[in-house]
Amino acid sequence: MLNQPHLSKRGNTYQWRRRLRRQSTGIVDIKLSLGTTDLRCAHILSRRISAESDIVMEQLTHQQITPDMARRWLASVIAKEREKIEKLKLLHRFDSRDPADDNRHDQATADAWAKVMAEGLHGTTSGQPLVSLNLDIIRADLTSEACQNIIQRDFKALTGHPQLSAFDRAKLISLLIAGKSAAWNRHGEALAEIDTAADDTWDSASQLLAPEPESPTVPPLPCPEVAADTLDPDMQAVVSRMNEMKRSEGIEEKTLRQYDSFVGLFTTLTGISDVRLIRQTDATGFRAALYKLPKSWGKSPADRNATREEIMARAAKLPTEKVGLSIGTINRHLEHLGQIVEWASDEGIAVNPKLKPGKLRRKDTVRDCDKKQAFSEAELRHLFKSSVWTGSKSEYHQTKPGTEVYRNGIYWSPVIGAFTGARREEIAGLAPSDIVERDGIPCLSIEDSELRRIKNISSKRIVPIHSRLIELGFFDFVETARAKGQAELFPDLREPATGKHGRKLGRRMRQIVDKTFGAEGAGLSFHSLRHYVQGTLEHVPDVTDKVLRDIVGHEGKDTHERTYSKPAPPAVLQAAIERLPAVI
C-alpha cells in the first residue's frame, strides 16, 4: 500500500516584485513569494496607480482585510483542522487494523503540511512516497478553483468582508497553510487553547499582511515592470497568457485548446474581440446563437474559418433535431467566458463589472448518468464474439472474419477496459514497465509518462489485473514486448504524425461497435466500457464507494477525503476487480 510510484517534481517557486505607486505615500515595495497560479496577483500589483485614481485606491484600501480579520481567520483554520484531527484519532482508536500504519500516514500528512509551509505551493517533492503523495494532493487542492471559492465563502461568513482580491486570497491561503501546519505539527503536545496556538502562529505569519521596507536587502529578480494598461485586452491575448500559466501547472493541452477554440467561436458569433467591450447583452446574444448552431459544429477543421453567416446558413439546411448545442455544452462555453473575463479583471484590465456570464447558465434536464451509455454484460459478451477476438482476415482487416487472432492493441485494449474501467488513453499509452507487482499482486500502474498524460492527480493509481486477463495470456504478451525492448506495449496504436495512442483506438473501436451492433450501437464507445465497470461494481454490496473511486481514478467526495484518505490496499482492490464477470 505504501509502495507508491515516484511523484514528479513540481515547478519551482518564482518571486515576483512589483511596485504599487501612490501619490500620497511614494513607493511601497511589496514582495511576494508565490507560485505560478498567483501570476494574476503579480499583474494586479504591477498596476501603476495614476494621480487621478487616488480616490479609487482609497476605497480599495478601506476594503482590504485587516489584521484582526486575518487573525480570526487563522484561529478558525486551526480550530477546524484540529477538530478533524481529533475525529481521525477517534476513528483510529475504534476502527484501526494497523495503528502503526495509521500513525505513519498521520505523520506523512504532518510532514507534508510542514513542507508546504516551508517551500510554498510549488516547492520540491519528497523522497518519501507517502509524504510525496500528500504533497501532491494538498498542492492540487490549494490551487484549485473550488478551494478559492471555499475560502471566499468561509472568510465572508466569518468576517462579513466583501469580495476578495487575488492579493487577499494569496494572503489567506498563506495563513491557511500556516494554520494547518501548526494544527498537525503541534497536535502531539498537550492540547493548548486554540488562541494560544493562533497567537504563536500569528507571530510568524502576520508579516504577510504588511509590505516590506522600501529598500530590500536582497536584489530583485530580473522582471520587467508591466503596467496593467499595457496588457493586450484582446481575448486571444488574454487566453494566451492564461494558458501559459495553466500549462506550467500541468493542465492538459486538450483542455487549453478548448479555450482557444472558444475565443474563435465567440469572436465569430459576436464580432467582439476586445474583452473590455463585452456587455451582458453580448453574452446573452452569444448564448442565443449557440442554440442555433449545428450540433456537429467544431468537428470539422473547416468550422474554424467559417463566418457567422456561413454557419447559420448551414444550420438552416439541417433538420431541427440536428440544430442547437446541448445545454451542457452551452454552459461550458459560458464558463469559459466567465473564466476569461475574471482572468482579465485580475490582470487589471477594465472589464464591465455588470458582466456575469455565469448567470446565463441553464439547468440541464438530463442527468449526467443518462447521457452516457454503458455496455451491458450481454452486449460485452456479444462484442467479444466479433472477429477481432475470434479470428480475422488479416491484422489490417481485423474487423473482417478470418482464421487468425491478432493479439495487438486493438485486441487487448477493450478487454483491459472491461476488466479495469480505465480510460482510453490510460490503456492505449501503457508501457511494459507499467505492469508491476504490489504486495504480490500483479497490477497496472497508471501515471504520467512520456507516452501519455493522465487526467488529474486522482487518476494516478494502481489497478490489480483481473485473473481472466492472465488466463487469456496477457502476461505472455507483456513479456514478449519486454524481450523485444519495446517502449510501448501497444505500438500499433500510435499515430506516427502525432505520437498519440488513444485516437486510433477510438476510431477502431467505433468500427468494431458499428459492425457488431449497427444503428443500435450508436451510443456506445470505448468510454462505455468505463461506465460498464462503474455500473457493475456500484451494485456489488461488498464494494464501497471509496474502493470504486480508487479503481477508476475519481477524486474523493470532499476535501477531507481527498487530503487525508489513503488508497485502498491492492488486496482490497483486487477483491473488487474479481467481482467483474468474465465476459470473454
TrEMBL record:
Signal sequence interval, chain numbering: none
GO-annotated molecular function: DNA binding
GO biological process: DNA integration; DNA recombination
Keywords, in A-Z order: DNA recombination
Protein name: Phage integrase family protein
Lineage, highest ranks first: Bacteria, Pseudomonadati, Pseudomonadota, Alphaproteobacteria, Rhodobacterales
